[in-house]
Design a protein that fits this description.
Helix content is 37%, strand content 14%. The chain contains 14 helices and 13 strands. The strands form 2 sheets. Strands 3-2-1-4-5-6-7 form a 7-stranded parallel beta sheet. Strands 10-9-8-11-12-13 form a 6-stranded parallel beta sheet, sandwiched between helices.
Amino acid sequence: MVSLAIVHDWLNQVGGAEDVLAEMHALYPSAPIYTSIYAPEKMPAAMRGWDIRTTWMDRLPGVYDHHQPYLPFYPLAFGRLDLTAYDVVLSNKSGFCHGVRVREDAYHIDYCLTPTRYVWMPDAYMAREGFGKAVEWGAKPLLAWLKRWDYEAAQRVTHFVAISHEVQDRIRRYYQRESVIIYPPVDTSRFRPNDRPPEPFFLVLSRLIPYKRIDLAVRACNRVGCRLIVAGDGRDRAALEAIAGPTIEFRGRVSDAEAEDLMARCQAFLFPGLEDFGITPLQAQAAGRPVIAYGAGGALDTVIPGVTGEFFHEPTPEALAELLADFDRARYDPAACRANAERFSVERFRRELGEYVARVASGQEPPSAYLFRK
């Protein structure tokens, strides 16, 4: 009987990473989940029945609400986590959880959501987050250490799985490792076409934080004078409302039912940021609606130009506005959008990941190759 453990970076917020974790738990319900911190009141109630085991970081003051200032502690916490009792360790990583210690003859499969963004792309990350020059300068020695730690931790992983071609390229570039691609799960059963003509508004459904680039959507819709509904909340909301014209409506956080209704009624979904994968464009396509996305990152894996949406190729309001001005909702068949989304179903994810883990555990899957040996 193979023993398996799951590792996750932190459990104090809900996003795409936590959707992946939920499906991993569904595949391996008896596997313990190791994580740095766990705030039960911030997470789905269903998690309270899971076997979740935290590190010493869980006792740090204020860490549930502000975990970012504790950045240097994550490598220390995960590096001290001893998982040598397990035959297979499955890490669900965007931060540092791939740094756990496993037995020499064990298998460590890293489901890589992305190589750690603020380590490998610090300039873009700090610019998006609005850090000043003093913070950037002061962070350089820390980032240099984190980069060395992160690279060395990646070399101890036996098998890498990427969530998109964009992430596969980053794993190759930053970790000098090869990987296979298994796309994240999308609940296509939740979002469905409503069999009615679309209504004349564009939709954004997102956390309102800098790197999502919702400002591009707002400015582009201002320029064209088209209606935009922004569903979601976050620290950028006040700044976005300040630049919004009369055709922009902010709904704040919406219920699941409202999100499903908006997706099915909009004429197109706007996805203006550079994402590692991006689940919301597939939710929109599951609802039969096309997507207008920035033509980079994970959107290249999920949107078919001319069939299920279109790309704009410069991250500017002008480039997006040009697409919006020429948008013809009659060009896109809801059935084609739905069919594309179904390629990324929860069932497919469970099947592909389960088969891959089984092959690794039985020694049939060779370790992820090094591109370069040093």
